[in-house]
Amino acid sequence: MSTIHRVALTAALAVVASGCVTINIYFPAAAAEKAADRIIDEVWQERERAAKPAPAPAQGGTQ
Amino acid sequence: MIPSRFFHVLFAVLLLGLVSVVSAQGNLDVDTPAIGALKKSMQQRHSELVPLYDSGAVGFARDGTVKLRDASAVPLPQRGRANTLIAAENDDRAALYREIARANGHPEWESDIRSTFAQRFIDRAKAGWWVETQGGWKSK
Fold it and tell me: This protein's superkingdom (chain A) (predicted)?
């Protein structure tokens, strides 16, 4: 019984420890993409909107 | 009885671990003063870079920088200014990638962050802008 517990505890610790290691070394690709998009939005958006009010006039302009 | 309680605890620990993994995956911190200053600087420069993107003089490279790919598209008197803009933009981008990695406690992520940005810049480049692909430069 106590041996089983010790084995189970060791296994549990191993899982938790490997989880911690994963958190520390794994590059969060999806989060990085989100961050990149947010920053590109901020760097580009204002100017794009200010410089290109083109879509609306283009619709009105086609006769 | 004891095993059942033990497995409840084990389950709780695993669940907690899962939650922390999920939250670690959720977001990167990009709200530091240094990153804010870099964004502002890039934002102010962007309006001057757009004509260079539009003309194809400057394109988005695979390494997360901007590159002068066709100097002849820039009138001679403006080439100096174009080179200054490109150098300043690339300095800001390099600092941005480095800062994001550092702000999140993983300086070693810098090159991953750089390639993520490179891909997003290329994916999001407007029609007519030039991007570097595996097969060379292409106009979108």
Answer: Bacteria
Number of domains composing chain A: 1
- Per the structure, the complete domain to which residue A45 belongs is given by 24-51
Distance CA B60, CA B138 (A): 10
For B4, counting Cβ atoms within 10 Å of its Cβ (0-12 exposed, 13-18 middle, 19+ buried), the class is: exposed
Is the residue at A3 inside a domain? no
pLDDT band (50, 70, 90) for residue A2: confident
Tokens of A59: 């619709």
Task: Please choose, from the candidates A34, A36, A31, A24, the residue with its C-alpha nearest in 3D space to the C-alpha of residue B115.
Answer: A36
A28 occurs within a structural domain: yes
* Whether pLDDT at A62 is above 50: no
pLDDT of residue A47: 44
Residue B47: list chain A partners with CB under 8 A: 47, 51
Would you call B47 an interface residue with chain A, using a CB distance cutoff of 8 Å?
yes
Q: Is residue A30 part of a domain?
A: yes
**Tens-digit pLDDT profile for residues B73-113:** 999 999 999 999 999 999 999 999 999 999 999 999 999 99
A43 in any annotated domain = yes
> Which pLDDT band, with edges at 50, 70 and 90, does B17 fall under?
low
| Chain B residues 69-98 with a CB less than 8 Å from chain A | 96
